[in-house]
Write a structure and sequence with these properties.
Layout (H helix, E strand, L loop, with lengths): L3 H6 L6 H7 L7 E3 L5 E3 L1 H7 L6 E7 L9 H14 L4 E5 L4 H5 L7 E2 L2 E4 L1 H5 L5 H21 L6 E6 L3 E3 L9 E3 L10 E3 L1 E3 L4 H8 L3 H10 L1 E5 L4 E3 L6 H8 L6 E5 L4 E4 L14 H10 L2 E5 L4 H16 L5 E6 L1 H7 L12 H19 L5 E6 L6 H14 L2 E5 L1 H4 L5 H14 L16 H13 L4 E3 L1 H13 L6 E4 L20 E9 L4 E6 L18 E2 L5 E2 L3
């Protein structure tokens, strides 16, 4: 059996100019980065402004096992399958972070015969967007410390600097550090720390900005610190937002690549869903809606995280309304949620499946709360048995939702034509009727009310507990007049609760919010639950251990 990278290396890619022509994009509207990837220019947005939008399909999932269960693979395969049934679909995905690439999950460009290519480029440096975001974030941090060194005219309280430096790599040793050591010429000593790039507010700003002007204004609004009198200090006051915008101007342009079957794919932005809002950029999604009759996009991790944030944050800011939700499940993950150990997931266990199916049921019910029809996609593994498959089909029938057995990993687009047809039929069934899509809450509600709605309606918690630090943070955000914006919950992806060990559908629990942070430039408030970290660590055996490069530059082991 070939590995993902071996399959990708054998792909017959088309020149990126040919992929662009498929979408009716002229040569002057793309900026090639080599032969097989390109930036899409600002002029293209203006040309397509009056064009009617296609249908929006969101791909999300149940709570996964620690290995992940192939949501991106389904997204890519669905786009390939759409072409097989003569539908014009454009894929809009997030860019991978180097953290997972070298950490626990490996590459993040799909898998098997449903991948985006060039896979090695996408999973590594791609077009430099992550580096640009890292540089802009760290420039802001450097300006703060330089301001302290040069007399501190703004009277910044060095104990209350909110923004951290970043690195697009899992490195737990950098979570808490001391800087400015070594004497007067080396800066003001203070405590600092690093986040992973995809958890930064700059990443969120890039993904939610509508254009370059909006990007700059959002950068200016970032709350970076408080002064010695307790007054807020914003990035604009440090006078570096123009330089940050210059670093980000090319990163703001979406990237065009292709699938293994030469279908167009736009990849842009990459916030994690467990510690950020988990969706690709609004610009990429809107561009895909203009270029195709269908836009297929995904939200990170389970529907309790990525999908909720897609609806309540991205759709709210981007004025988007999904036409269909594809909810990805695997028999493996459902058995895991039913209590089966990870090393025994390959064995038939219908009893465990019956216990774990409550997780799928809860996510179906949750997605219906947004007024959007759901199609369940079973990402098939070769270890799935007929008895297990039939049980899920019967269950979905009882729930009144379409279900499709997708063999996309092994067969590419051919393995997803049934899913593609059922998605199209579901959308057509709703065609002409007034959309029922709505967000879960009114962003003008008090912070605690918004969190309570998410906790009760999505996580199925009995309520929310707030630490003293969280209570203090809420009062500060309210005092600043920024409480009437959406909330973004940082929570474990492995459970509906804030405890990763509580699988299935936990009962009789409360969510504990330990702290909150105002992401004023992004336009939302981050609520931290459990022990979620904004700088992950590497596992005992990192994926990096298996990656190599030979003398001819051929990379191996990249998933």
């Amino acid at each position: 059996m070939l590995s993902d990278i071996e399959i990708a290396s054998r792909a017959k890619m088309l020149k990126i100019t040919e992929i662009a022509k498929k979408l009716g994009i002229d040569d002057e509207d793309i900026e090639p980065y080599g032969h097989y990837k390109a930036k899409l220019s600002e002029s293209l947005f203006k040309k397509l402004k009056s064009k009617k939008d296609g249908k929006l399909i969101l791909v999300t999932a149940i709570n996964p096992t620690p290995a992940g269960e192939g949501k991106t693979t389904i997204s890519v395969g669905l786009a390939q399958a759409m072409a097989k049934i003569n539908k014009n679909a454009v894929l809009a995905l997030r860019e991978p972070s180097l953290g997972p690439v070298f950490g626990i999950k490996g590459g993040a460009a799909g898998g098997g015969y449903a991948q985006v290519v060039p896979m090695e480029d996408i999973n590594l440096h791609f077009t430099g967007d992550m580096h640009a975001i890292t540089s802009a974030n760290n420039l802001l941090c450097a300006l703060i410390d330089n301001h302290l060194q040069q007399g501190n005219e703004l009277r910044i309280d060095q104990r209350r600097i909110l923004i951290k430096r970043c690195l697009d790599m899992n490195d737990r040793a950098l979570r808490y550090i001391n800087i400015g050591l070594g004497g007067k010429v080396n800066g003001i000593p203070r405590e600092d720390g690093f986040q992973i790039t995809v958890a930064t507010e700059i990443m969120a700003v890039l993904c939610l900005a509508s254009d370059l002007d909006d990007l700059k204004k959002r950068l200016e609004r970032i709350l970076v610190a408080y002064d010695l009198d307790g007054n807020p200090v914003y990035a604009k006051q440090l006078k570096g937002c123009g330089a940050m915008t210059a670093l980000l101007k090319d990163a703001l342009k979406p990237n065009l690549v292709q699938t293994l079957e030469n279908n167009p794919a736009i990849m842009h932005g990459g916030p994690f869903a467990n510690i950020a809002h988990g969706c690709n950029s609004i610009r990429a999604t809107k561009l895909a809606l203009k270029l195709g009759d269908y836009c297929i996009t995904e939200a990170g991790f389970g529907a309790d995280l990525g999908a909720e944030k897609f609806m309540d944050i991205k759709c709210r800011f981007g004025k988007l309304a999904p036409d269909c939700i594809v909810l990805v499940a695997t028999i493996r993950a459902l058995k895991y949620n039913g209590g089966v150990a990870r090393d025994k997931l390959n064995k038939e266990n219908v009893d465990a499946l019956k216990k774990g199916i409550v997780n799928l049921k809860t996510h179906i019910e949750n997605m219906h709360k947004f007024g959007v029809p759901v199609v369940v996609a079973i990402n098939r593994f070769h270890t799935d048995t007929e008895a297990e498959i039939e049980y899920i089909k019967d269950f979905c029938k009882e729930m009144g939702v379409e279900v499709s057995l997708a063999e996309i990993f092994a067969k590419g687009g051919d393995g997803g034509t049934d899913l593609a047809q059922k998605v199209c039929d579901t959308i057509d069934k709703c065609e002409g009727s007034e959309t029922n899509f709505h967000t879960l809450y009114d962003e003008k509600l008090p912070i605690k009310e918004k969190l309570d709605i998410i906790a009760r309606e999505i996580y199925r918690a009995d309520g929310v507990i707030y630490t003293k630090q969280a209570e203090k943070a809420i009062k500060e955000i309210e005092a600043l007049g920024h409480a009437d914006i959406p909330v973004c919950v940082a929570k474990t992806q492995y459970s509906l609760s804030d405890d990763p060990t509580k699988l299935g559908k936990p009962e009789g629990f409360e969510i504990t919010v330990r702290d909150l942070k105002l992401s004023n430039g992004a336009g939302f408030i981050v609520a931290y639950t459990g022990d979620i970290m904004t700088m992950p660590g590497l596992p005992k055996i990192p994926a990096a251990n298996n990656i190599d490069c030979d003398n001819d530059g051929n990379i191996s082991g990249l998933f």
